[in-house]
Amino acid sequence: MIPKITDADFNKLVKFIYDNYGINLAQKRVLIEGRLCNEIKAKGFPDYHQYLESVYADRSGTEIIALLNKLTTNHTFFMREQEHYQYMKDTVLPYIVSLNRPKKYVKIWSAGCSSGEEAYTTQMQMQEFFGANASMWDTNIYASDISENVMNKAKKAIYHVEGMKNLEPSWVKKYFTPLDNECYQVSKTITSKVTFGTFNLMKPIPKPVVPYDIVFCRNVMIYFDLPTKVALVERFYDVVAPGGYLFIGHAESVPREQTRFQYIKPAIYRKPLPDGKK
Q1: Residue 278 has what pLDDT?
Q2: Model's pTM, two decimal places?
């Protein structure tokens, strides 16, 4: 039986994760012990101390990302928080079309994309919205996560039917290929329009050549304390186009007095347009 984690090891781990990834695990001692116990046994370490020291010593970063995956795994599925996609269909995409861009494009970032369901759902929504004109629009999505492991799953685009039950049957027929009775693969029509890349949201966000129309960062900030959350939202603000939108998880919130984004409705924020514009 592996001994309990010591105060010293627990405090060092909490500080390391917070300083480097913005995730606050100060109240998660039981979770840490429960989720890391089997990992320690599998790797043959006698206690948390030796395991954690090996993680800190790994210069490749592989071990710390594996540890983060153990501690912050978040269940996700297609068409999660359906209200966002309805608002995107009814309000956001019509607004983008109204801009009359000479080069037709929608610039979207799925930040903290996990295993890809959010990015692929968003791409399907755009294909449905533009319909016969979809080929005339550049709807490529940038999807990022800190973990290469979850993104490798996203790139394979193979999903269990259980996570697809919120999708319209017509979407499943149109955008998926059945592999067996339980697993489906997203079609290349959709996967070819999503680009994945690793990114730590605690780092400065490179200024894009073209600012984003939409940033999805949903159910990521539940692990952040308020100052970390506010700072991240302000970094998003700087890379979103005037009139662009930020979608966060319904379990999350941003104090309205601490952000330059305009509150639209629960979990939806907008970067204000210059005076006089709508």
Answers
A1: 61
A2: 0.87
